[in-house]
Amino acid sequence: MATTLPSNYAGDVSAPEAWAALQADPRAQLVDVRTAAEWAFVGLPDLTELGRRVHCIEWVTFPSMDPNTAFVSEAGAALGPDQDIPVYFLCRSGARSRAAAIALTAVGYTKSFNIVGGFEGDLDADRHRGKNNGWKAARLPWAQT
Could you tell me the residue ranges of all domains in the chain? Predict the structure, then answer.
């Protein structure tokens, strides 16, 4: 009987799980796939205490919101040739980052993870982000640029 492969990327992790993995493995990398406007106005994860920086690579470009056709090559250049490193992808809520994890898996990055809840998290009952889940709700390090 054939078994089904789990998924087309390494899987989903919460923001606290991603932070713990980044702390535990100095090779692990964080890629924020939001737009330049989001980085500027909403903030960025801060990896200063880990001695690393976030790789900021737009999945879609602002303001047109067209797909960034250079995403895979830009990510490859930022991450380097070792495709066995753990890579954690982050967006606003986890949709674009899932697509990015799938795209990098397709070119050989075997440990591409999606951070569910993203940076801002899911909408709450009042249609606001930042309370339910995600990087900010978990009170992980971040900074306004």
Answer: 11-143
Q: Mind listing the pLDDT tens digit for each residue in 76-109?
A: 999 999 999 999 999 998 899 999 999 999 999 9
Q: How far apart are CA 32 and CA 144, in angstroms?
A: 14
How many C-beta atoms lie closer than 10 Å to residue 40's C-beta?
Answer: 12
| CATH node for 11-143 | 3.40.250.10
Per residue in 42-64, pLDDT tens?
Answer: 999 999 999 999 999 999 999 99
Task: Concatenate the DSSP letters of all residues of 14-45 into one string.
Answer: -HHHHHHHHHH-TT-EEEE-S-HHHHHHH-EE
Residue 29, both tokens: 């990398």
* Residue 57 DSSP code: -
